[in-house]
Amino acid sequence: MNIAHSLLHELNTPLNGILGMSRLLIENCDIMPSSEEAEIAEFIFTSANRLNTLVQRFLLYSNLELLAKNYQITEKKDKCLAKRIMALPD
User: Fold this and answer.
1) What angle do CA 8, 10, 11 make, to 5 degrees?
2) Cβ–Cβ contacts within 10 Å for residue 54, how many?
3) How many CB atoms lie within 10 A of CB 78?
4) Distance from C-alpha of 26 to C-alpha of 3, rounded to nearest angstrom
């Protein structure tokens, strides 16, 4: 399984929790006891925090991947430059 597929699944899980529980809260707020509303709000908050953490980790991973790619490109250029310098006549 590639990282994009895995990431989409991981993001979908808390997002579905947020959407489902918020809809439940909206549709039943007039008949729901306050304690149940608070419990659902806590679930939504927890899911949103989980989603935020996943997004932050993915952004960090993307930045690290980009830095690694840039480093490899720079390293290749440096090796080519070093070879050309070594080939220069004295």
Assistant:
1) 65
2) 16
3) 10
4) 34
Q: Which domains does the chain have, with CATH numbers?
A: 3-87 (1.10.287.130)
- List Cβ neighbours of 86 (8 Å cut-off, separation of 6 or more): none
CB 18 within 8 A of CB 3: no
Model pLDDT for residues 10-51, shown as the tens digit of each residue:
888 899 999 999 999 999 988 989 999 999 999 999 999 999
- Cβ–Cβ under 8 Å, residues 14 and 47: yes
Helical ranges in the chain per DSSP H: 3-28, 34-87
Question: Would you state the structure tokens that stand for residue 8, as one six-digit string?
Answer: 């989409």
Are 31 and 46 within 8 A, CB to CB?
Answer: no
Who has greater pLDDT, 72 or 21?
Answer: 21
